[in-house]
Write a structure and sequence with these properties.
A: 5-stranded mixed sheet, B: alpha+beta, 5-stranded antiparallel sheet, about 55% helix
């Protein structure tokens, strides 16, 4: 089961869960993913120890996709 | 400005900054040292001149020397400020945020974060220490540190989520992360160390030890030790 989560004021919120063989869940996850990107979130997936990758499309095979807010110099 | 594949999207907001790399970090460190010398040397020179011309003015010379000492200390204090803050979040939200951050970290890094409030993360440019509102980069050799002011743009996030934001951005694009962040201090680790709270000093010491070990490993096969093989 893959998960799309958003880091927010509650700690984090699970926005979607899907299996690749469940087209309805996949479509819902893609829709949720795009809606969050439109709101200014960035999506990141872990790609191994100490590594992560920015993604613009929902990677359906990834077990965990994390949405984060932009960072900025203080 | 062309954006490299995999580069942080936030780079668009600092398009005028050249992307940080090893050479630029070395240059920045040298410039910072030169700047500090240019601020302190006049005081030292004036103190020496006063004593040479009129030994009676020694007390004034001492005051000038104190000024020369204080200036780099103030810079170091500013650098320490980027990781000094540690706020406790509301229990349910912070608990969930800590769970997520813990999932992103290895066992050792998780332990260090619980004890010291900073995430230790090895990178290509050095070893990073990430806090809620800033990051320290301990450079190869473990003697110099760069302090960066950088934070998640949502101020209402739980503390551990703020750290997780920085961690994910760092892992996605280390050079981009260092470019987006604002440099607040670059100097000797010992100078910064004295300005940090006790638990943060331990984190800095751990990063310094790691970089010293990496430096030894890079020195050649004769310096190879168990720590090299353990990474």
């Amino acid at each position: 089961m893959s998960r799309l989560i958003r880091m927010d004021q509650t700690g984090h919120t699970t926005l979607a869960e899907w299996e690749t063989d469940d087209p309805i869940a996949v479509q819902e996850a893609i829709a949720a993913f795009r809606a969050q990107l439109d709101q200014g979130y960035f999506a990141v997936v872990s790609t191994g120890e100490g590594q992560a990758q920015q993604v613009q499309e929902l990677p359906l095979q990834a077990p965990l996709v994390i949405l984060r807010r932009p960072i900025a110099g203080g | 400005m062309t954006t490299e594949a995999g580069a942080l999207p936030e780079l668009a907001s600092v398009y005028w900054r050249p992307r940080v790399n090893e050479r630029r970090l070395v240059r920045t460190a040298r410039l910072w040292t030169l700047c500090t010398i240019s601020h302190t040397l006049p005081f030292v020179g004036a103190a020496a001149l006063l004593v040479a011309l009129k030994p009676l003015t020694a007390p004034v010379a001492v005051i000038l020397l104190v000024h020369a000492w204080i200036i780099p200390e103030l810079y170091a204090a500013r650098g320490a400020g980027v990781v000094r803050v540690r706020r406790s979040g509301a229990p349910p939200a912070e608990g969930r945020a800590m769970l997520l951050l813990g999932d992103l970290l290895g066992h050792r890094a998780r332990e260090l974060y619980a004890q010291m409030g900073l995430v230790i993360e090895p990178g290509e440019l050095g070893t990073w220490l990430l806090g809620e509102t800033g990051a320290l980069l301990v450079r190869r050799g473990g003697r110099r540190v760069h302090c960066y002011c950088v934070r998640a743009t949502d101020a209402d996030l739980p503390p551990s989520d703020k750290v997780a934001h920085l961690l994910l951005a760092l892992r996605a694009d280390e050079a981009g992360f260092a470019t987006v962040a604002n440099l607040s201090f670059s100097g000797a680790c010992w100078r910064l160390r004295r300005r940090l709270p006790a638990e943060r000093r331990e984190a800095l010491a751990a990063a310094m030890a790691r970089e010293a070990a990496r430096s030894d490993c890079a020195a050649g096969p004769s310096a190879l030790s168990e720590s090299c093989t353990q990474g």
